[in-house]
Amino acid sequence: MLTYARWKYFVILLVLVLSTLYALPNIFPQDPSVQVTGNRGSQVDEALRTRVADTLSKAGVSPKAVELDQGNLLVRLNDPDQQIKANDALRDQLGSDYVVALNLASTVPAWLEKIGARPMYLGLDLQGGVHFLMQVDQKAALDKRMDATAEDVRVVLRDGRLRYESVERRASNSIVAIVANAGDAEKARQLIARSQPNLLLDVQGNTVSVQVPEAELQRMAVEAIEQNVGTLRNRINALGVSEPIIQRQGNDRIVVQLPGVQDTAQAKRILGATATLEYRGVVENVNPYDAVASGNVPPEGRIYYRKQLGPDGKPMPIVLNKRVIASGDQLVGATSMMDQQTGTPAVSVRLNGVGGQRMFDYTTEHVGKPMAVVYIERIPEVRIVDGKEVRTTKVNEEVISVANINGVFGKEFQTTGLDSPKEAADLALLLRSGSLAAPMDFIEERIVGPSLGRENIERGLTAVMYSFAFALIFFLFYYRVFGIITCLALLLNMLMLIAVMSLTGATLTLPGLAGIALTVGMSVDANVLINERIREELRLGLPPQTAIAEGYERASGTIADANLTAILAGVALFAFGTGPVKGFAVSLIVGIATSMYTAVGVSRAIATLIYGGRRKIKSIWI
Amino acid sequence: MKPFNVFPYDSNINFIRLRWLSLGIALAMLLVAIGAMAVNGFNFALDFTGGAVTEMRFQKPVDVDDVRDRLEQAGYGNAQVQTFGSGNDLLIRLQPKEAAEGASQKGDTTASDVQRALAFEGNPGTVLRSEVVGPQVGKDLAINGLWALIFVVAGFLIYISFRFEKKFAVAAVLTTLHDVVVVTGWFALSGHEFDLTVLAGVLSVMGFSINDTIVVFDRVRENFRSMRATPEEILNKSINQTLSRTVITSFVAFLTVFALYLYGGGSLQGMAESQMIGIIIGTLSSIFVACPLLTLGFLKVTKTDLMPKAKDEAALARRP
Questions:
Q1: Is the ipTM of this complex over 0.90?
Q2: Which residues of B touch A447 (CB under 8 A)?
Q3: With 60 as the cut, is the pLDDT of residue B2 above it?
Q4: Inter-chain contact A518–B256, Cβ cutoff 8 Å?
Q5: Shortest CA distance to A117 belongs to which of A24, A208, A202, A29?
Q6: Looking at the structure, do residues A46 and A18 belong to the same domain, yes or no?
Q7: What are A426-461's pLDDT values in tens digits?
Q8: What does DSSP say about strands A245-249 and A253-259: parallel, antiparallel, or unpaired?
Q9: A403 and A468 part of one domain
Q10: CB A568 to CB B156 under 8 A?
Q11: For residue A592, what are the domain limits?
Q12: pTM over 0.80
């Protein structure tokens, strides 16, 4: 008999309400906006707001709203052109005290955001922006490290007063040292083993061959790419792009996506910017705050600013020696670790031979005194002044750590006294990210204009709407009452699909929109199977209500088998596809899954509502 | 109320009798597809070959030959230029020059080079989109596509063997692979551009094709259990019973993809095309190829293949 459990109706109602709620944010358009954030302790307050408003009106831009929000200033604008104009005007006016970034501001009401409802994230092809794929030259990174290791071996032998004929790098990542006297070979081996215990050593006659183990090489490769990712992240943060994607891909590639950014030339320059670091002694007998106030700086010193903020909310000044002890190009590696003596987080740093020697000389004379690490970044900038391109370089200098020298050390030393393992990891990353571990090539580059993005959305939506309309009209015409039921099921299916994709934070791409259209096409199959089956049962002479129940019952098994195999194909697409293909696969998988529920569960519930109950029905419209 | 119908319900077309003809045609299509792939190869898009593509929009329509000449003068021979959309939009594909300053400058210079070369008087153009893709990426993608294919085939074989029977699994996979090869072959034959979204479309054809075949097989399984007839009669009956469903589903699915083809714009056309052909081929093959395969050689099904095994075991267990 045709019945449907009451609790299942509640489930459907619940699904309907939840789907509507979570699909709802997508109908609120996003405002193109410019976000202003304080840099180096600059205040974001009413004064800045007035300043921004003045700047905008001078540039002929009329903003929709200028809002203060959690230490940020958000300028909402009417269209992307105005956004670019406002961005340029503000960037020039505010200078380096503030980070000015393009953003898309949500207009979703707060109560919706509170329950976690948010719009789908749009892929670059629908929003505009740039996409880079960069290849890290692992060979160059390895070469750099091997050269450093060879240099270390040389220094060890020299320090041990062993005469050697040559220290050479060989292919297959080994170094061969030939000592003058065969008798010294064993002693050389011991010296090298003591200074670098992780190398594999072998003595034959007067040659010591040094092999870098596979695990060590692997570690070097991973470190190189992580260092590059870290460097890129720092630089992009400085660029102030909202929601950038910086990802390691495979063994030697890095993906960078910057939504909303249009000027690739500028983006490329920043990504390729150079940065380095320097070790400098601290000039102690001066109060840095007085020095800043009076301008009286000792001749050997210079004022720097620390990364940390002082009690006044501004970066703390510090006076450092003009003489550089060691610099970034002498840095071979930095790893965060636990200090074995104190058990506190620490960062272990390795310098090359030359840097190590100078560090040794300096620390011998300055035990117990503080030493600072300065991070320096050079970013080329291009501005248009009077219609001409003017190229300048912006230099950021920042003191990232100050620590006391505990004892004499050389090329390998530790910075201890850090508060947490995270701080240690961050410092190690900053030290490493001073420079790129290996050069990178841009092997793929994609720019999508914002207007093309808008056009893509419009085209995609039109296509989905038409495909939907085609299906609905056909069903209404062909199956009549059951056509209406099918249409209702399809509509809920669409709503669920949008809700699930919004809720899971899936990215909607143009092929993703195609996936939605195709979902409509595939999900009709379940409904057709059911409707045709009901017709068949009717022809076999079953009473209408029994025919409906039988139709749903018998079609369910077929639908499950057919759809599960189709999902299997979707999973493969997702697992092996990249970028746009993945977006297509996601909407296909989700769509098939939701269509199974709506076609079997929901349409049956509606059919029961119409044809169920006690009364006898002579015929049905199908 | 009499139902509205495309196909008469008592259709009794003898598809199995046509099997040699239908399988022959399917084989011929397969051979043509493979031949086209071997002889013509594919018109691989940037995603696979590497290179640079620039989309530009001009205020007034431009002369494509003029554009080609200008690009040649700028040092880009063999540039592919085509108009799309309203005719004011240009799609330019070319091989970037080996930049002296190193690879990192490549993309930068290409887009601006193109823009400079195409600076028409009184008809300014804007760059809508520009892309540079390394060929290395393409190789990875092709390999990934192959892996996806292997994964899907293995998955189908396991799932269908488990739910139906080994013979059905082999027949369904053969049918699906046939469809995929034919659709892929169409792109080799027509020389239409083969890009990433087309690859996605081709792979989704597998989903559609297997779906169609499974529905027919499902009915075959059901009929084997309830009917007393020869396997050929049962197969024929099953195809006829599901015929109207097969045609309606395919018709509606085709309509939706056709909407995509009409309104989706240039970047979705390849995908829609692969799916339109896939739907047609997939529908035909589930009717004309899948079931006939079940009457041949080692794939020949018998009633015992499909009797529910669980029942036998339960019956055996009840015996003392």
A1: no
A2: 111, 127, 129-131
A3: no
A4: yes
A5: A24
A6: no
A7: 677 666 655 666 777 777 777 777 777 778 888 888
A8: antiparallel
A9: no
A10: yes
A11: 6-25+449-611
A12: no
